Amino acid sequence: MKRFSAISVVREALRGNSAWPRQWRSPEPKPRYDVVIVGGGGHGLATAFYLADRYGVRNVAVLEKGWIGGGNTGRNTTIIRSNYLFDESARMYEHALKLWEGLSRQLNYNVMYSARGVLMLAHNIHDVQSFKRHVHANRLNGIDNEWLSPQECKEYCPPLNVGGEMRYPILGGALQRRGGTARHDAVAWGYARAADALGVDIIENCEVTGIRRAVSGGVEGLETTRGFIRAGKVGVVAAGNTSVVMNMAGVRLPLESFPLQALVSEPVKPAFPCVVMSNTIHAYISQSDKGEMVIGAGTDAYTSYSQRGALHIANHTLDAICELAPMFRRLRMLRNWGGVVDVTPDRSPIVAKTSVPGLYLNCGWGTGGFKATPGSGDLFAFTIAKDEAHPINAPFTIERFREGVMIDEAAAAAVAH
Amino acid sequence: MLLIKCPFCGPRPEIEFAYGGQAHIERPKDPMSLDDEAWAEYLYIRNNTRGVHSERWRHINGCARFFNVRRDTISDEILVTYKVGEAPDAVPEKDRPTKGGAVR
Amino acid sequence: MKYRLSSGGQVDRSKPLRFSFDGKGYSGFAGDTLASALIANGVHLVGRSFKYHRPRGFMSAGSDEPNALVGVGDDEARYTPNLRATQVELFDGLVAESQNRWPSLSLDFGGANDALSRFLTAGFYYKTFMWPAAAWKRLYEPMIRRAAGLGRAPTAADADRYTQLYSHCDVLIVGAGPAGLAAALAAGRSGAKTIVCDEQDRMGGTLLSEREAIIDGLPAADWLARTLQELGSLSNVTLLPRTTAFGWYPHNFLGLSERVTDHLGRKEGNLPRERMWQVRAKEVVLATGAIERPLVFPDNDRPGIMMAEAARTYLNRYGAVPGSRAVVFTACDSAYRAALELKGAGVHIAAIADVRPAPEGPWVERARAAGIDVRPSTLVTATHGRLHISHADLASEGASSSETVPCDLLLMSGGFTPSVHLFSQSRGKLGYDEALKSYIPQKSVENERSVGGCRGLFDLGASIADGFGGGLGAVRGAGGTPVTEQKIPVFVQSFGQDGFIGALNGKSRRRAWVDFQNDVTVKDIELATREGFRSIEHVKRYTTTGMATDQGKTSNMNALGIVSHALDLPVPKVGLTTFRPPYTPVTFGSFAGQSRGKLFDPVRQTSIHDWAAEHGAVFEDVSLWKRAHYFPRQGEDMHAAVRRECAAVRNSVGIFDATTLGKIEVVGKDAAEFMNRMYTNAWTKLEPGRLRYGLMLREDGFITDDGVVGRMATDRFHVTTTTGGAARVLALMEDYLQTEWSDLDVWLTSTTEQWAVIALQGPNARKVLEPLVEGIDLSREAMPHMSVREGRICGVPTRLFRVSFTGELGFEINVPMGYGRGVWEAIYAAGKPFDITPYGTETMHVLRAEKGYIIVGQETDGTVTPDDVGLAWAVGKTKKDFVGKRSLARPAMTRDDRKQLVGLLTVDPKVVLEEGAQIVVDPREPVPMTMIGHVTSSYWSAALGRSVALALVRGGRARIGKRLHVPMAAGNIEVEVVTPVFYDTEGKRLDG
User: Fold this and answer.
1) ipTM for the complex?
2) Residue C816: exposed, middle, or buried by beta-carbon count in 10 A (0-12, 13-18, 19+)?
3) Which residue segment(s) compose the domain that C93 sits in?
């Protein structure tokens, strides 16, 4: 791997930028791998990287039906935070956040992790109670999260409409200063490049069409559009298509796939200093390095794989944004797109072994998977390499639904009396 | 915004409806006789079909009735809507949504 | 040099308009755009590019413009950044400024980036800025952010308003160029309800700058006028100029953005700035035309280099002359027409450099005949001029030497790219046309047809015929009866279909721009492919080509061509980036529409709301409702008011508006059976006239709602729900009733809006109420706790509940909503001798917490079972089934270390715990600490003279009597675990 640095940028530029090598190879699939990861998104590529880097498994392939990072990795609003309520979630996302903080240097790829702070706004008394519960739980878990008064919210994020005429005025907010954003594409590319350098084969345009199981029941390999690939172990990380892939192994899941929209404005000079989320009026916003306001909201109502959503969802997202920051009313939407998110009954992920020996599953991140990318990859790699869950992802089994152990962050912010 | 044909009221925009999830999942007659696995299957396991999906919608801002829809989840095209208890194939062709434009 | 023709075009020379650009005053005419007016003033330098801050001029004359972005507005509340000067209609007093430059447009320090461009290639930022780690946040990122962005966001709230409307039509025609107008004639004459929209201020498209064509025996301009007049006279046709169809959503649903007032300058009247039309069309005719492609050659980005068709538009439509001495660089015939027309207006055409080896045909002949120097196989190999082009180097292909030709204008044309954006958004299938070097529509998916230029028909006659036929087809598709096919004769010199995509003279060391706004050059794209970015989506994302505010309208096909060449793959193998809405940027305010301020969400108010407001209530939002939170008197804060209100209820009587509680009338022969199945409780034996606390679970076993239910008759229940849960509960009931138990004879009716509910609570409640009530014996014996009677109060029919959520003697008086305030005031008056006190939700919360009554959503959070909160008594043990019963038997639901509701008393009685605070066993444990629960409710109890709290604690009931700890940031708080009833533990006061 040719190291990236200011020096290499200058040196190569002086040579006409003609000697930069490929960031990752485009190999033909080998007949057999120790581990095959299905899905070349951020989570899948991270899994491959950590398998090779931390757990000594280097005969690894990542199969991607399109181009890497082309699913939710390249479609999300890149919010990173770890101030979750329940211990299980908090540990999971904090594990990821710690990895984010050193990721650019670990991968030698600037993923532009920007700790701009994530401010979650409260608009009614129930929100205040709920967010304070988060703040207290986070503090005892060693996770930064602090309560800001409306005026402190305004000082932290000057465009906010505090004290103006709002249907649901801002009553305060919970701020995680270490939270922020990152450059989503770079995460996929950085992991791909680093994994490739460790010998991982990243195989694009290779769609899995079947999961072959041995007589014993265990996984034998994968039928793909580029032929059969034998695999010691298979990890499925195919957000948006998890049910489809797992059906090939005869595994049915507690999952539904919904469209999730996001949009950006035309780029403007720096005007919004942090990430602001408002669950009550359904919108979130940050400004990208490029200057675009990056905006998202909740899912559409119905399950769909169409990767597009309805106009009225965008309307309701932007009316909320215009309430929060009325000076942005004259900004213009530049691009609006949709992704497909897998949602579990408790909206928490599954990172676990399955009932099929040698088949591992990482799915169900819903609308919040990007922030977990490094942690999810690391824990999933651990689970695959050791054939057992890491203590952090141990609670995130499929069986929890049978037993009734829900990790329900959304329900914990239930409707007020 | 989808255009959904309520079998009772006719075609209406999606915002008049509430989505009701996968159709034809019958609540077990005697839930207590089910083991945990079977109960979890009823509660949580869904086809999540990529393709033609049978699902429930409710015309909540209209007649308030539940009905069933067959929709292609890749294109969002609605193939047929039918009443609870009705067989989808029984819906006459003329009462189905028109499909597709010019083919060149 | 005069840059404005003295006649011709569609500007109104009798209406001069003043405007300013970067502080300098200019004048133009009515009908001008900012771009045409600046060109008519000889101004070409209008902007700076994103990365290298290259000086830029006008490249196009339409919505595809990548360079000429300006900020418009002299008033911060109406300032708009990033507008294309080519679309800004001139008005008197318009103030515009250039962007992304400092200190000035002509002297921009950011231009230093240009000299460093070789270090700033595609994706360079992914490779550096990583050391030292802390510098990213403090130094590099702020630097990058300051450099990025184009215009600046306004700093004041927008003063304008926006509106939205829905519309339905038989035929929606997008684009009012020749094909679209022909389609409109066909649809309009057939009587179809037709909407025609066009993004420009005038309809006509290319006809607006057409000089030669004869259509139906008339010059193009006259045919256009006649056609618009005819369409305008048809009542079934709606013409929407200045209206961009920006997005196609499933099922023939399109979003249209109409710009209503921007072109008027200072606003008059109360018109909205923009209207968003949401149109459901039975059929859509796309007549969106085509966009001329730039040629990608060295130094192709200087001011004065523009599209050949743009120059024609400036000249023919606006009478604005974009230069005096032009070089034309082309790969197709149409630029010859531009050259001839410019020459006719007095512009010297220095040469036509044609990339084709042997250009021929009528247009080439006409150019030669006019004495223009036509040079086949000739490329522009470089251009010169700092702020405006001054020379172009021309060389025969393959030649080593070039000729430097002076010029102040360079026209380019690489052919035309059909605008398939909306077609692609509709999920129609595109196919690559090798001759056109473009993608064109192949198969429609929705009820749609593309006509004219947007499907590759560039000949005017063919386009008009196609449009008319498409209009007829759409009428047929919409179920109408089309008029007969009509031939519209068109006489015009047609063009071939030549075009070019990719890089010309790719070996040059000079940079050639592909995406002008984002400063993506051929070298960047080649670098990306060299680094392994092979999918066109990767190339786009790595280089940012096609991601600027023009969304690649002029650059995408060239980028594809370059990638195709670099990878040695045919274009269709490289792939195509997805077209996404909006077609051109659309104002946020337009999406938000009227949903703003008070109108953001409906406000629900009870009939007693105004009384509460008049009596100084502070309100809180609970779902859509406004509820009185507390009633402060002069000088009281919330705590003081709540202490006083609590004392009043405990000592005498308080009055509370409980109208917002959800109410559902459950009626029918099988009503009791239905209630048995929906609620955990048993209902069969509940006698008419009695009340029961009802608890509802979701099928997964967790509490979703609760409320008091009255049995009004054997077949009739009056169900109440939480304020926020009303809709959820009714939906859940309807779901089971309609889809699982449709055999039950039960009817459900929401009666939330039908009943006003007045809670009268306190030891004197009966005394206050008694004189007002007719036909009901309120005595303890006749009407015990948890009973309901029907009768009259103040002459009004009432359902009178004897019920308490305070622990005191209490009544809830249901009266028809319209009588709410009247009855409330009568009770209030009757209560005066007892110092009756109105109280709000906060006091209600304190009083019920003192009694250990839960609030769903506060003690419960969607993960709580009945037993967790001590409500096992409300679960019918003998019932075979109810919603949620099976789930309660799952392993994790029955564990005894679940979190259970307990009371907490702080060891220091003056300390009030914070709601949400976490509970631990060992306060000395290092972080992360083991949390065993949290405080759900916590108040100062005036009645007890100390604080009280409710909490969910792991294995809590077994810890009663033990000490636990609540570690706060400011220090640890020690608490004792107690049963969750603090006041009147024996419940005697209920029977007061």
Assistant:
1) 0.97
2) middle
3) 1-154
* Helices vs strands, H then E, count in chain A: 11, 18
Residues C251 and B13: their CA atoms lie apart, in Å, by 10
Which residue is it, tokens 């209902």? Answer: C683
| Collapsed DSSP state (helix, strand, coil) of residue C26 | strand
Residue B101 pLDDT: 38
- Which residue type does C706 have? D
In-domain check, residue A11: no
Task: State the Cα–Cα distance between residues C137 and C141, nearest whole angstrom.
Answer: 6
CATH number at residue B49: 3.30.2270.10
CA distance B96 to C475: 20
Residues A164 and A272 placed together within one structural domain of the fold: yes
Task: Tell me the pairing of strands C618-622 and C625-630.
Answer: antiparallel
Distance CA C662, CA A227 (A): 60
Q: How far is B85 from chain C (nearest CA, A)?
A: 9
If you write DSSP's letter for every residue of C813-879 in order, what string do you get? EEEEGGGHHHHHHHHHHHHGGGT-EE--HHHHHHHHHHHT---TTTT--SS--TGGGT-GGGS-TT-
Contact C443 B85 (CB under 8 A): no
Q: Which two tokens stand for residue C37?
A: 């007016």
Residue C520: how many other CB atoms lie within 10 Å? 32
Question: Is A55 a member of any domain?
Answer: yes
Domain residue limits at B81? 3-92
Planar angle of CA C91, C96, C100, nearest 5 degrees: 155
Residue C516 within a domain: no
- The pTM score is 0.97
Interchain contact, C914 vs A136, CB within 8 Å: yes
CB A146 within 8 A of CB A175: yes
Print the domain residue range for A294. 118-177+257-343
Cβ distance C916 to A408 less than 8 Å, yes or no, reads: no
Nearest beta carbon to residue B48 from set A243, A301, A311: A243
Say whether both C760 and C742 belong to one domain.
Answer: no
What is the C-alpha radius of gyration for chain B, rounded to an integer number of angstroms?
A: 16
How large is the average pLDDT for residues B20-39? 96
Are residues C674 and C703 both part of a single domain?
yes
Q: Report the share of chain C in percent with pLDDT over 70.
A: 100
- Assign residue C346 the CATH number of its domain: 3.50.50.60
Residue showing tokens 């099988």: C670
Has residue C1 got a pLDDT over 60?
A: no
Contact between residue A126 and residue C907 where contact means Cβ atoms under 8 Å apart: no
Q: Which of C509-513, C757-761, C891-895 has the highest mean pLDDT?
A: C757-761
| Contact residues on chain B for C253, CB-CB shorter than 8 A | 1, 3, 13
